[in-house]
Design brief:
The protein is of the alpha/beta class. 23% of the residues lie in helices and 19% in strands. The strands form five sheets. It has a nine-stranded mixed sheet with strand order 1-11-12-13-14-15-25-2-3. A seven-stranded mixed sheet has the order 18-17-19-16-20-24-23, with helices on both faces. It has a five-stranded mixed sheet with strand order 6-7-8-9-10, with helices on one face. Helix 8 packs parallel to helix 9. The longest helix has 18 residues. The radius of gyration is 23 Å and the shape is globular. The two termini are 41 Å apart.
Length: 486
């Protein structure tokens, strides 16, 4: 166990929303609980951020916790059920005072901003853009004609510590001594530049990318070894694989007062994640949860089944026509398992741009980096940006390599692609029916390969760990998104 710095005075940052009638709304929106859920998480609660204003001069009314039953159809807590029923006073755009933040660190209204899920669909979270760099609930406000610094939302703070997670676009945050970065996607590192002067805690791969891509000073990077516990300012911190993109981690925070908190960052829950020995055996007081796909309509097949599908279709296409070029979409990082498996099956190199190779070389993934080349003619598998995986983009790319290939097959691996019809794979997994699109001899497959958890996976994850409290971290920046989450 490494010890980094003294234990500071606790930073009390608490916020909970009061949402009347949430259980009734949830019973209509969410599926009824299963038999496993009837006795799980009865005491758990869910916090939803609300529209916020400048800190009030008077103390706010006590907050009311909304129980986990409203989130995943589990049994409501007795405490919540016995709370006095009072008619909310409609102030501040309809939000009750108890739903406002109780300290100066708050989250201004972002009703006019698109939800993070919409941003992800457009940018993938890995391509820096104005939209994707605006975190949920964080906008700069203008007071007296002057642009004010954005305030850090409460849910990016870890209460009882001097830590924030993925909060780099708010400048120097009062009371924060350790800035944690879950992974290298722009909607999480947005605001991080070479001039950043505070300590950053992250995985080794993420640290490599910060230094080599963003020019962050190496002495600002504090690498946390995967599955190893480090004492950071008196808090035991353990990074655990998030199964999202290379270098992505979940953070387990064990506080001196006995509380244990889990911040998932972005993650894809799976059996291997739930059974991770560094997550099991702990009682989590709070889980900060990736709620990108918090909607019952999203139910993704296993990642392995999606990879198997891409490999099979690539092999069939090349067997039919050896002059077939295979292209696969990606973000700055992410989706590597798909194109690596296809390349291995075809015994091919993987062609990428020089910029993309510079990124992938930082991941310390020998099986991947050994196949990379910037010479497009050396490989039958080419990696393009996700935006290029369209008939227009594929036609342009094929034209550039017309002397070598006369056919092209594209894979667009994203959770936003799905079908209501399912088939069963050779491994017995349910797989949505994936029908190709054709145009002028080109073939395009949308594969529901997601690096975020589906609704059912989130439900199983929560039911397994039975947290006392859930804090959503995605799509919580506007009243509309909060209402849809309820």
């Amino acid at each position: 166990v490494k010890v980094i710095g003294p234990l500071p005075a606790p930073v009390a940052i608490t916020r909970t929303a009061s949402v009347n009638g949430l259980r009734q709304a949830a019973s209509q929106l969410l599926p009824s609980r299963d038999s496993a859920g009837s006795s799980l998480g009865a005491h758990a609660t869910l916090s939803l951020p609300s529209q916020s204003l400048e800190s009030p001069s008077k103390p706010l009314a006590p907050t009311v916790q909304t129980n986990l039953a409203s989130f995943f159809g589990l049994k409501p807590s007795e405490k919540a059920a016995t709370l006095p029923k009072t008619k909310p006073r409609p102030v501040y755009g309809g939000m009750h005072p108890s739903a406002l933040p109780s300290n100066p660190i708050h989250s201004p209204s972002a009703a006019s901003l698109p939800g993070r899920a919409a941003n992800r669909r457009a940018t993938g979270g890995g391509v820096a853009s104005r939209a994707s760099d605006e975190p949920d609930g964080a906008v700069a406000s203008a007071v007296g004609g002057k642009r004010q610094r954005k305030q850090c939302p409460f849910y990016k703070h870890i209460p009882g510590t001097c830590f924030t997670v993925d909060a780099f676009c708010y400048g120097s945050i009062d009371g924060c001594k350790a800035y944690f970065l879950s992974h290298f996607h722009s909607d999480h590192y947005g605001g991080l530049t070479k001039s950043f002067s505070h300590p950053i805690y992250c995985s080794k791969s993420t640290g490599n990318l910060c230094v080599n891509q963003l020019r962050v000073s190496q002495d600002r990077i504090h690498t946390l070894d995967m599955n190893q516990t480090t004492n950071v300012h008196g808090v035991l911190v353990t990074p655990v694989d998030a199964n999202h993109c290379p270098g992505s981690v979940m953070f387990v925070f064990q506080l001196p007062d006995g509380r244990t908190l889990l911040h998932t960052g972005d993650f894809r829950s799976a059996k291997s994640v739930i059974q991770n020995p560094h997550l099991r055996g702990l009682k989590y007081d709070t889980i900060y949860l990736d709620t990108t796909y918090l909607d019952p309509k999203y139910d993704f097949p296993p990642q392995d089944a999606c990879v198997e599908f891409a490999v099979r279709k690539a092999k069939e296409a090349v067997a039919t026509n050896p002059r077939t070029l295979i292209v696969s979409g990606t973000y700055s990082i992410g989706k590597e398992r798909v194109f690596l498996a296809v390349a291995e099956a075809l015994k091919s190199k993987v062609a990428v741009t020089s910029k993309k190779k510079a990124i992938l070389d930082q991941l310390e993934w020998p099986e991947l980096t050994s196949r990379l080349t910037t010479n497009w003619s050396e490989a039958q598998v080419h990696v393009l940006s996700m935006m290029q995986i369209s008939f227009k983009g594929m036609a342009e790319h094929l034209q550039q390599h017309a002397g070598q290939y006369n056919c092209i097959v594209g894979f667009r691996p994203t959770g936003w692609t799905q079908s209501n019809k399912t088939t069963i794979t050779s491994a017995g997994a349910a797989m949505p029916e994936i029908l190709p699109s054709f145009r002028d001899g080109m073939i395009l497959y949308g594969i529901p390969y997601s690096e975020h958890s589906s609704f059912s996976e989130l439900k199983r994850f929560v039911q397994h760990f039975r947290p006392g409290f859930i804090q959503p971290t995605v799509n919580v920046g506007s009243a509309a998104s909060r209402d849809s989450m309820q």
